[in-house]
Amino acid sequence: MLNFTILISNVMKHLAKIFFLLGLIPFVFLSCSNDDDGPQKTAEEIAIEALAGTSEQTWTISGGGSVSRDGTSLTNNYADFEIRFRNRGSAGLNYETTGSGGLFDPSGSWSLEGENYNRLRLSGIQPVANRDITYSKQGGDLRLEFTVPNPSSASARVEALVGFYVFTLKPKP
């Protein structure tokens, strides 16, 4: 009877060790996750990638984009519009446009503004330059909203461009 009691005691000790080890397995797998992919991106880096991808991204009207001013469609006037945002790292953030009808400069630099980096600012001398452009991503599209104000002394060309604009752009493959 004593041998049987010792045998049972030894089996119980081994079972306790096995259950203890089995209990540790979930912790081992949880600690081996792939969450550590290097340094986390800042909010500004994420916003830059939304516009320029990892190095550059072209956005266009063609393929289903649209333009409106004060609620009236101007898509046909800007059918060839494209804007390319470039992220050159330490060399800066640059843009190029085509088909802008004098609304945007052909090229320049860009920056992000606001606490959430949700506003864009383009350098240049054309009516959109140096103004806040609110941008948002809607699915795969880029939406730009801005106002060209009525300047106190402006040419007839600038006065013809005054209004609230909404550009909905498609990514160019």
What does this structure look like?
There is one protein chain. This protein is of the alpha+beta class and 173 residues long. The chain has helices spanning 2-30, 43-52, 156-161; strands at residues 56-60, 66-69, 72-73, 82-87, 93-98, 107-113, 119-122, 133-138, 141-148, 163-171. An eight-stranded antiparallel beta barrel has the order 1-4-5-6-7-8-9-10. A hairpin with a 5-residue loop joins strand 6 and strand 7. The longest helix has 29 residues, at 2-30. It is elongated and about 100 Å long.
Q: How is the topology of this model organized?
A:
Layout: H1 2-30, H2 43-52, E1 56-60, E2 66-69, E3 72-73, E4 82-87, E5 93-98, E6 107-113, E7 119-122, E8 133-138, E9 141-148, H3 156-161, E10 163-171
Antiparallel strand pairs: 1-4, 1-10, 2-3, 2-10, 4-5, 5-6, 6-7, 7-8, 8-9, 9-10
What is the global morphology? elongated
Q: Walk across the major sheet and give the strand order.
A: 1-4-5-6-7-8-9-10
Text of the CATH class: Mainly Beta
- Overall structural class, as computed from helix and strand content, comes to alpha+beta
According to CATH, what is the topology? Lipocalin
Can you give the helix content as a percent range? 25-40%
Q: So, CATH architecture?
A: Beta Barrel
Strand content: 25-35%
Integer tally of domains: 1
Sheet having the most strands = 8 strands, antiparallel, barrel
Taking the alpha carbons of the first and last residues, their distance comes to 82 Å
Rg, rounded, reads: 29 Å
Query: What is the tally of beta strands?
Result: 10
What's the pLDDT, averaged over the residues? 85
